[in-house]
Write a structure and sequence with these properties.
Chain lengths: 114, 115
């Protein structure tokens, strides 16, 4: 079975400070990892994905994520947070064996204070 | 262009009504998905169409009936819903459903309220 854990329901950060949203996963075989962002009453927007290769993945809106195989983690980061980054963030995983559908984490609400 | 459109944006219906949700994409994607999302929760997969054929039904009650008339369109027909079916219904599409690297792109959703 595959699973994703986002241990923090909410992350608070001041504007201009670096932000990290945590994600750990469990999957059979190789992991394929995704981050999505959801603004209020909107659909999910794709931010970035890890397939293979470089452990640091760069995505949209200045976000990046670091894949760590030994810690089974895929934390989302941004060097300098903006108030407009305040939203709900979902990590998702798919393995290359077993269930092929995406499994989403429970979500982390990011609140960036001015 | 990674746009998936959904209509209507909002829908209010009674438990005896019949209504339909519509989803459209013109990216040439070969897989389309329906998800249900409750407030502050992750999306829950309902159905997957792969090459216009239903490939996954996540044991969804029969009061939800999906239809894929062609590769660009996906409908969700609703009948005799319950108040607990009130949620945000999200449509998504992806290019190649057989690939591990396949990325799903989501529409803005339809906010459904069942009275």
């Amino acid at each position: 079975a595959q699973s994703v854990a986002q241990p923090e329901d909410q992350v608070n950060v001041a504007e201009g400070n670096p932000l990290t949203v945590k994600c750990t996963y469990s999957v059979s075989g190789n992991p394929y990892l995704f981050w999505y962002v959801q603004y209020p009453n909107r659909g999910l927007q794709f931010l970035l994905k890890y397939i293979t290769g470089d452990n640091l993945v760069k995505g949209s809106y200045g976000f990046e994520a670091e894949f760590n195989k030994s810690q089974t983690s895929f934390h989302l980061k941004k060097p300098s947070a903006l108030v407009s980054d305040s939203a709900l963030y979902f990590c998702a995983v798919r393995g290359d064996t077993g269930r092929r559908a995406l499994t989403f984490g429970s979500g982390t609400r990011l609140q960036v204070q001015p | 262009d990674t746009e998936v459109t959904q209509t209507p944006k909002h829908l209010v219906m009674g438990m005896t009504n019949k209504k339909s949700l519509k989803c459209e994409q013109h990216m040439g994607h070969r897989a389309m998905y329906w998800y249900k999302q409750k407030a502050k929760k992750p999306p829950e997969l309902m159905f997957v169409y792969s090459y216009e054929k239903l490939s996954i039904n996540e044991s969804v009650p029969s009061r939800f009936s999906p239809e894929c008339p062609n590769s660009s369109l996906l409908n969700l027909h609703l009948h005799a819903l319950q108040p607990e079916d009130s949620a945000l219904y999200l449509c998504a599409s992806s290019q190649e459903p057989g690939l591990n690297t396949d990325t799903q792109y989501f529409g803005p959703g339809t906010r459904l309220t069942v009275l």
